[in-house]
Write a structure and sequence with these properties.
alpha+beta, Alpha-Beta Plaits, 8-stranded mixed beta sheet, 7 helices, globular
């Protein structure tokens, strides 16, 4: 009888351990590891100021038109394939995924752990994303399908990062740096990486960049913009 109850105890304990491991894994899929640990130990996570971080936005030009030619299931499958590749690329460069909204993808370097290479890391990741999409589109064209024309925009500056929500946690970033990064994307061109003057000053020694001049950005006026062409 003792052995019987001992067996039940160890079985239940193993189930609890597996359940906790699964919960931890799910939490890490939602939040950065450092933020998740703080949340588990303290029950909350304070917002943090970052003097410098590099924010990247991507989206697909004429996405609505492409969506009209694909079934909803096929469209989701293709977006998932692209975004999964983006996830792998930014992880290799130590960049934090923030969120996706429809066909838009947002990530940032230099947080939650601060570093001095965030601008370079983010631009390198952007080049790999651009090149992945070139290969992806060649396959789509071979099959007679409309390609996904990606625009990529990057900006560097101060941000605030933290958790919002009490039931469905979301790690997010705020600040004008984020707004300008979005403008870099929308003011760019398909298949190209458009960066702000702030990012350019941090990466100009390591990347070949083409000055576009002062381009009007919605609600921001004229801003210096550069296309990143490759690594020096």
């Amino acid at each position: 009888m003792v052995l019987f109850f001992a067996g039940i105890f160890f079985t239940q304990r193993n189930k609890i351990k597996k359940g906790k491991k699964r919960s931890d894994e799910l939490l890490l899929n939602i939040l950065p590891a450092e933020v998740a640990e703080e949340l588990k130990s303290k029950g909350s996570s304070a917002a943090r100021d970052y003097e410098l971080a590099t924010v990247m936005f991507t989206d697909f030009k004429d996405f609505t038109k492409i969506g009209e030619q694909l079934s909803a299931t096929k469209l989701v499958e293709e977006i998932n394939e692209c975004f999964s590749a983006f996830d792998d690329i930014i992880q290799q460069h130590g960049i934090e995924k923030i969120k996706t909204i429809g066909d838009a993808y947002m990530c940032a370097g230099g947080l939650p752990i601060k570093n001095s290479t965030h601008a370079e890391d983010t631009v390198k990741a952007a080049i790999e994303i651009r090149d992945f999409m070139k290969r992806y589109n060649l396959k789509k064209i071979e099959k007679g399908e409309m390609p996904f024309q990606i625009r990529i925009g990057i900006n560097t500056g101060p941000v605030v990062a933290g958790i919002i929500g009490v039931k469905k946690f979301a790690y997010d970033i705020w600040g004008d740096t984020v707004n300008i990064a979005s403008r870099m994307e929308s003011s760019g061109e398909a298949g190209k990486i458009n960066i702000s003057g702030a990012t350019y000053e941090l990466v100009k020694e390591n990347f070949n960049c083409k000055y576009r001049g002062k381009i009007d950005a919605k609600n921001k006026g004229e801003m210096d913009m550069y296309f990143v062409e490759g690594i020096v």
